[in-house]
Specification:
The protein is α+β, with helices and mostly antiparallel strands. The chain folds into two domains: 31 residues; 129 residues, Immunoglobulins (Immunoglobulin-like, Sandwich), CATH 2.60.40. Helix content is 16%, strand content 40%. The protein has one helix and eight strands. The strands form two sheets. A four-stranded antiparallel beta sheet has the order 2-1-3-6, with no helix packed on it. A four-stranded antiparallel beta sheet has the order 5-4-7-8, with no helix packed on it. Strand 1 and strand 2 form a beta hairpin. The protein is elongated.
């Protein structure tokens, strides 16, 4: 019985300590900063050796024609793409932030739609969310990321200009 009481006291001490630390950070001049999307990244997955390409979105005009057979940007066969969304900020512990990533094809059909709570920030106040896209390479894809509960936040959109050529 006393061990149960001890555990409850330990949990409450952790909660109160966490609230105190949040208050201390606010008083020490570390106010919350609204989260914002800093960047989108896309990496082609090369299935023959398990490697990833450089960031497709970092290139000005990436060649993504016939990537399925190893032509273009990656220089190796690829049929999957990892998209990551980088979010920065120092949100208030009491306020939830939701991130939505939508991938559409040339016909404006939704291929992938993922929503997540943005909860864990690293020491540099960044959060990364990954979305795995399968069967990529046959058609262009538009990737849009947006923060759902940030009224002034603008969505970030990038194009993966996949294509097939004969």
């Amino acid at each position: 019985m006393s061990s149960v009481i001890f555990m409850k006291l330990k949990i409450w001490a952790s909660i109160i300590g966490g609230m105190w630390m949040c208050s201390f950070n606010l008083l020490a001049g570390n106010p919350p900063v609204s989260p914002k999307i800093e960047a989108l990244h896309a990496y082609l997955y090369c299935f023959n050796d398990g490697s990833f390409s450089k960031d497709v979105f970092a290139e000005k005009n990436p060649t993504l024609t016939n990537t399925i057979i190893g032509e273009g940007f990656a220089g190796k066969p690829t049929q999957s793409t990892l998209v990551t969304v980088e979010v920065s900020g120092k949100p208030s512990p009491s306020k939830k932030t939701k991130l939505e990533v939508v991938v559409t094809n040339e016909k404006h059909k939704t291929v992938v739609k993922k929503t997540t709570d943005v909860t864990m920030f690293d020491a540099d106040s960044r959060y990364f969310f990954g979305v795995w896209l399968e069967n990529t390479g046959g058609e262009a894809l538009k990737v849009t990321a947006r923060l759902l509960d940030q009224p002034n936040a603008k969505p970030v959109t990038k194009l993966l200009p996949f294509a097939l050529a004969e």
